[in-house]
Amino acid sequence: MAAPGEALPAQQDLLLAAAFVCDAQYNRNIPFETSPQAVRLYYLYNHWTMQAATYFFVFVNLSLAVFEDPAVYPLPFLATSLVEVLCLLVFFSRLLHFAKVTPRNIFWKDAKNICLMMAILVTLTDLIIHGALKICNITSVRYSRIMRPIFLVNFTESRQMRRAFRSIRNTLPEITYVFLLFMFSVLMFSLMALKLFGDRNLQTVEGSPYFTNYLEIVFDLYVLVTTANSPDVMMPAFDFSWWYSLFFITYVIINTYIFMSVFLAVVYNNYRKHLKNEIRKLAYMKRHKMVEAFNILKVKEGSEFVVKESQWKQVVKLVAPEISTSHRELLLRISDDEQKGYVDKKSFVRLADLLNIQVITMKIRSHPLERWLPHVYNSASSRFLRSMVRHKRFVWIYDVIILINAIFIALDEENPLISYAEWAFLSLYIIEILLKLYTYEPRTFFAKNQFWNWFDTLIIIAALVATILNAAFKSTSKYNGQQVLDIVFILRVLRLIRIVDSIQRFRVIMNTLINIVPTMLTFGGLALVVYYMFAIIGMEVFQGKIQFFAAGSTDPHALECGNLALKDSTFARAKYCKNNFNDIASSFIVLMELTVVNQWHVLASGFARVTHQAAKLYFIAFHIVVVIMIVNIFIAFILEAFFVEYSLEKSEVETAIEKKIHELGVGVQEEELLDGKLIDNMETTENNLEGNGIKTSRGLVFKIASKRYRTVDALLQRMFEAEIPSEDEGLPFDEILNLSPADFYPKSPTFDSAA
Amino acid sequence: MAAPGEALPAQQDLLLAAAFVCDAQYNRNIPFETSPQAVRLYYLYNHWTMQAATYFFVFVNLSLAVFEDPAVYPLPFLATSLVEVLCLLVFFSRLLHFAKVTPRNIFWKDAKNICLMMAILVTLTDLIIHGALKICNITSVRYSRIMRPIFLVNFTESRQMRRAFRSIRNTLPEITYVFLLFMFSVLMFSLMALKLFGDRNLQTVEGSPYFTNYLEIVFDLYVLVTTANSPDVMMPAFDFSWWYSLFFITYVIINTYIFMSVFLAVVYNNYRKHLKNEIRKLAYMKRHKMVEAFNILKVKEGSEFVVKESQWKQVVKLVAPEISTSHRELLLRISDDEQKGYVDKKSFVRLADLLNIQVITMKIRSHPLERWLPHVYNSASSRFLRSMVRHKRFVWIYDVIILINAIFIALDEENPLISYAEWAFLSLYIIEILLKLYTYEPRTFFAKNQFWNWFDTLIIIAALVATILNAAFKSTSKYNGQQVLDIVFILRVLRLIRIVDSIQRFRVIMNTLINIVPTMLTFGGLALVVYYMFAIIGMEVFQGKIQFFAAGSTDPHALECGNLALKDSTFARAKYCKNNFNDIASSFIVLMELTVVNQWHVLASGFARVTHQAAKLYFIAFHIVVVIMIVNIFIAFILEAFFVEYSLEKSEVETAIEKKIHELGVGVQEEELLDGKLIDNMETTENNLEGNGIKTSRGLVFKIASKRYRTVDALLQRMFEAEIPSEDEGLPFDEILNLSPADFYPKSPTFDSAA
């Protein structure tokens, strides 16, 4: 096989096709006119080390906030600014690299490239100005810090995050109208409240006048929507007459229950609509490129155009060098169902999908001990031991042990008997793992998708290490290794999670939850971007206004958080002094508290006291952006993920592979693997394998990671793709890029006729 | 037309068919073997007065809790128990009536009838025992009071509520597993918290030891899931080291965000699944009955069976005597498209759907003034005035007036100028209504579906009456008519809502919200049932433990709510004394506060202090039932309603009517009505009408209440019905009744082949 660089002129087309296929597989923008060098550059650009490096520098750049003033760990300005310049250089060269592998007109049309360049330029300018002013001892605000998340969002790799942001942007117009209606309702109720309660001379719990100032009423009722001041805000009126509680109940029903649900509905509906659209767009693009690749490779065979088996193999090898020969043979058997020696258009177009399906090729190996010490391993007692370990009761016994362990953990640590028991439990767990390794083939036991085996082993080893470390600290010195002990405690409790895996129903829910984790990271990114921006602003505005004094501090203003304005405030009384914006870590924690919503009005009022009433706007803005938008998108996403899991039957393409695997008698069910029945199956499958046509090595078994899609996106993509008829080659490339949701919905049938 | 009682033997079949149709229209259980008397009884049973009477007594029975000890308005035991016996008698006779019109085997197979009988029996027994004991001066608990909501749920009329309860029951198994997993997670985190923070000697804000008792930790962390004690529960650990905040953040992300979303997903998914199933069942039943009715009425015409036009008309007249002749003619034209003089099976089956569509027949009448004083009404100045009122600027001017009014309302009431301004605004609004009545035909203006016209007029008239009353009170006596004044205030502010109707985008959202209202009443009922039960239990357990003393009370324990156990508690400090279970009204308000969730732990701890720690279980149970189940169903319902509104195109049946109306040129768009273009249209449509075939009176216009479905259910029903192929007559009747969701989902295609 020729490496890309040594490509002969005749193979250029093949390479282009490979690039196309590769591209279709990963859904990337691709260079339209390619030379071998361009392809090499393109490969390099997409190499995982380059992507990892980009992410690394993005996070270095973001984490500068930890070291810059106000810092968690202060570093001199020179150090942080040098690192920042380095990051900017990396970003710039990455952008340059991207420009090299992208046609010029495409590069300049892409808003995210322009955005990146602007961000680099502005940051650099700001840095220089700030540095110059610092030399003259003038302190200035480093505005450009707020732009740092742009690098996280706009590099090619963060496709999903950009999609989420696009989804938010698309939802904005619709949500704005609902929000205006909602605010209108709040303002109306506030007016009613002013008229009803304003002249009653009622007092709040703190003794201040109740509902006399219109703006304060609006704030209080806005807080009531978030339920944070319920029922306190109602108590004075309720105490006066219980009829007045009806006012607040009506308010909560309309504004909290109905309007907040409507927000969720609007966000969810738009999220679904736009996601569907984007994924459909991707599916069309993929198919379009596959057809182009086919057109390059095709030769005439009888009345139809096809791709020869040899060329097909070469492309696959080039595109996915990591898959095994037997896996490739399997794919060929699926693509060339009747073994005619060539692949037709329809099957070829499916190739990218086939490559995307995780087929785990497993060699059924005999246990290493069986090879080294066959006599001992196959002795009667060894066989008995192994059958014991495979028995259901073995699991049950360990479940009981875990339960007993849980009780011991809850008991007092000081008792020496119990601290010895801990060692006993640890040994029992280690024995369990050793026994399982003795019984099952180790590489099968630690296969990629054996989540629970990995989890168990890692937790036990970590617990072992930490417990030994802790014992060492205890015996050798006076040093109280509290942090190690904390880790020991956490690991000890985490071990108990294993019991969940023993119960089938729990396992299903857990698997769904584990499946959503990768896509949840997108939301982690989304939240990080918004949090970072708000944290930077918060630090500029509130930094140093509120101080925290550790318990036992002799500072006279310790109880007022070092700020007299907070005297007698709810903020100081609740001892919230540590909730401040004095460094990025604290800021993030405060923002998290604001996301959880409860008591956010206390925080808002506290910060408004030490600065200005207008500071409340910062907190209201945060509530609108994070709680009404981001959290609702998060909920919408979890809902959608669960519904898809509930409703999706296996998609067509996957079933084709599965059918083939089944036909060839080389499949294993995931359940069998989990239950450790693999070895039992081996003996039967081995015999079957010999008879069939694939020249695979003996003892080979295929397994589809059936329900374990890597991301919900992949899952959705497959779902929507099933809706596109397979003959449909989609629109011309440019048109696909400009599709809007409206193009898909009412006109969907026209695609068929256009094709 | 013969009245049902005078039916001749030959008309029995017709009557049966009419009963069937009527029944299919309302989806009721029907008497299978019918005599004229049975049909009369059946009509009587379904008469709206009987249904209203049943509801009336159900609510009388429920509201007894207001008058029974502990009472809001105390009445002697004899009075309440006599009323209760009366209610029970009514219920029993209603049940007897139902038994008369239902075949015996169906009656006894129905669990709700058995349930009702048991409830009547138990209540009666309990009442007698309680009365007897009362005579002997022994106080006993009236357990049967908790059964009263059974009457609300189990009478035939509350079909939707029963469906909601069935939906909850069906969701239970699935939600239980998620709940167990969730509780497992809470217990694990509690164990970790105990180990991490238990030995640190930390203190809460109140100075009590922090996280030392396992059960208390579990309660605190359960409360944290509801976010009610965030961030207070975290502060002591956070003050100690900011690293520990990570523990709480992880906890909130997993348990609040992820698990609560999963609960919503599970509830929503099941709600949708079961609703779809039930509605499909109804659709099949309806079609089944329509086919039976067809089979009774059919005559052979050529090669196919049909229903004669005359018989068709008779059936329609019998079934829906309230619809106009012209409406009936329209339906006939749709059913008998080619005017062949008979209706075929397919069209006949559709009749029930056609009857369900709200077609508003409107006679275009000339304005009464035009008839009485044509000279004046058609004079140049009158014409100018009317064109002015119809002009867009007229709406704008009044929008500006409303805005100015809003400012005046917010200003001080005491200023005499402003209180005169109020009269000016009132007059302006009245002038507006009079002008509109002068311009538009009054019966068109006050048509059934002109929500905003009704709203405006009612609000203005009420405001006028209340303002006059208030002025009268003020001038004649010292009596401070505060309650009248409150109503005046509320009405004054409600007037401002009108401005929403002027903006198209808001109107759409508002219409959707108004459409959901009827079905939201189902949830009102659901909430009432659960609240009532919890309130009864709450009153038995907590009654009198906490007392409220009005401000200025001299009671020494006023600050501790009359209970020394509450000394120094957060409950007393927050002045929550009025949140008690001393009567049903207070109980409902407390339960509402618990539903809103915030501060519920303060309430729970307060009540636990005055009784027993186990009392917290009552509050946790309430949280699980109401917040995790009912509120999630409510949210699921609003989501679904919005999605249906978003996604549903007009259904097939409706389009058929609309097409016909359009063909005949007798349609008006709703928008035209709202914009007051009706009169302009009249002149053109009048001419068109004369040419067409329907013998309608001159100036008749049909209008479909297009997007205004009465309930979301009706809407869903139409949605799912579209999925059933029209040739499909469904399964045999008995099988339909026993269908489960599983029957519909995977096997859906088999219905086609079975038909």
TrEMBL record, chains A, B:
MF (Gene Ontology): monoatomic ion channel activity
Membrane topology designation: Multi-pass membrane protein
GO annotation, cellular component aspect: membrane
Domain Ion transport: 53-273, 392-647
SUPFAM superfamilies reported in the protein's UniProt record: Voltage-gated potassium channels
Compartments (UniProt record): Membrane
Transmembrane in keyword set: yes
Transmembrane regions: 48-67, 73-93, 114-133, 175-198, 242-271, 393-411, 417-439, 451-473, 509-534, 617-643
Keyword entries, A-Z: Membrane, Transmembrane, Transmembrane helix
Main localization, broad class: membrane
Domain of life: Eukaryota
PANTHER family associated with the record: TWO PORE CHANNEL 3, TWO-PORE CALCIUM CHANNEL 3
Protein name: Two-pore calcium channel 3
Gene field: TPCN3
